[in-house]
Specification:
By secondary structure, this protein is mainly α. The protein has one domain: lambda repressor-like DNA-binding domains (434 Repressor (Amino-terminal Domain), Orthogonal Bundle), CATH 1.10.260. It is 69% helix and 0% strand. It has 5 helices and no strands. The chain is globular.
């Protein structure tokens, strides 16, 4: 299934990945923080799986960033 707003989704995902890296977390460490496998993180970071809103929020919180701030920043980046 594809997103109805692919540019916004891609921007939000890129910001989430960047936040993970800036936080110094590996994919395995992040997965452990929110109770998933490293493969789950690899899958959505590579674009093989779309995150639902609840997952995005949980992941951002596990990283230690505000998911709503990232979404607002993504919106500004894509001009929505």
């Amino acid at each position: 299934m594809a997103s109805f707003y692919p540019y916004l989704y891609e921007a939000a995902l890129a910001l989430c990945i960047d936040a993970r890296i800036k936080a110094g977390l590996t994919q395995a460490q992040l997965a452990e923080r929110f109770g998933q496998t490293e493969r789950f993180v690899e899958s959505y970071e590579s674009g093989g799986r779309l995150l639902d809103p609840a997952e995005y929020i949980a992941i951002c919180r596990a990283i230690g960033v505000d998911p709503f701030e990232l979404l607002q920043k993504a919106e500004k980046e894509v001009g929505n």
